[in-house]
């Protein structure tokens, strides 16, 4: 079993330009979503956003691996065979609504996620596990995608925001020995405006 390696970089901040990306994989033959964001100040411009069929999923992984931090909407570790990893239990206590890994579809997705994480680590990238529904809830974003965007694109954008949270050292994190889940960005909310993701200070931000 490979452990998640989420490490916040305290030298970065939202006042410095950074590229992050997000990936919404499928555990079967469904479509994959991917997103690449260029963030400067509190605004993230979409560099690339789309969906691909499963047989072209490798292209989506290659696209997102251009960024140093890659958010992934999938379990990045397979667990010990039970329904829940320790970080899943912590995330649930923080309000996340997760599916158990004993479900067939989740087992397949976890295998895909762990393979993606291995590829990203080999390329020198930081894979970041997230749960888009919980992250959007925390950031105040709607669960339904805006007009013109598909579900997989919307999830990929959320995954990219999870990557940004780690990049700036401000993830709302459910972490344990076996995995780490990013559920939000401490001190920020977000909104989708004019094709951009805009962060807005909210509450107390970490120093």
Give structural notes.
The protein has 207 residues and is of the alpha+beta class. The model is unreliable at 1-12 (pLDDT under 50). Helix 4 packs across helix 5 (151-167). Helices cover 29% and strands 28% of the residues. It has five helices and nine strands. The strands form two sheets. Strands 5-4-1-2-3-9-8 form a seven-stranded mixed sheet. Strands 6-7 form a two-stranded antiparallel sheet.
> How can the largest sheet be summarized?
7 strands, mixed
Q: Low-confidence runs (pLDDT<50, min 5 residues)?
A: 1-12
> Outline, from the CA principal axes?
globular
Report the CATH topology name: Nucleotidyltransferase, domain 5
> What is the strand arrangement across the widest sheet?
5-4-1-2-3-9-8
Mean pLDDT: 89
- Report the end-to-end length measured between terminal Cα atoms: 34 Å
Number of domains: 1
Please trace the helix and strand order, writing H or E for each element.
EEEHEHHEHHEEEE
Could you give the count of β-strands? Answer: 9
Classify the secondary structure makeup into a structural class.
alpha+beta
User: What is the count of DSSP helices, taking H or I runs of 4+ residues?
Assistant: 5
Q: Mind telling me the CATH class? A: Alpha Beta
CATH architecture: 2-Layer Sandwich
Radius of gyration: 15 Å
């Amino acid at each position: 079993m490979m452990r998640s390696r989420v490490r916040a970089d305290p030298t970065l901040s939202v006042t410095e330009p950074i590229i992050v990306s997000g990936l919404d994989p499928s555990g079967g033959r469904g479509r994959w979503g991917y997103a690449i964001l260029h963030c400067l100040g509190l605004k993230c411009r979409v560099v690339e956003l789309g969906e691909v069929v499963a047989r072209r999923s490798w292209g989506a992984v290659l696209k997102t691996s251009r960024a140093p931090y890659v958010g992934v909407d999938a379990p990045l570790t397979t667990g010990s065979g039970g329904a829940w990893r320790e970080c899943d239990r912590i995330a649930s206590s923080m309000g996340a609504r997760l599916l158990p890994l004993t479900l067939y579809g989740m087992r397949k997705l976890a295998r895909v996620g762990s393979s993606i994480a291995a590829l990203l680590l080999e390329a020198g990238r930081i894979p970041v596990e997230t749960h888009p529904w919980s992250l959007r809830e925390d950031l105040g974003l709607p669960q339904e995608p805006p007009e013109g965007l598909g579900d997989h694109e919307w999830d990929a954008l959320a995954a990219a925001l999870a990557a940004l949270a780690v990049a700036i050292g401000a993830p709302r994190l459910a972490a344990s020995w076996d995995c780490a889940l990013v559920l939000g960005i401490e001190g920020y909310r977000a909104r989708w405006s004019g094709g951009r993701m805009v962060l807005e200070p909210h509450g107390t931000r970490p120093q």
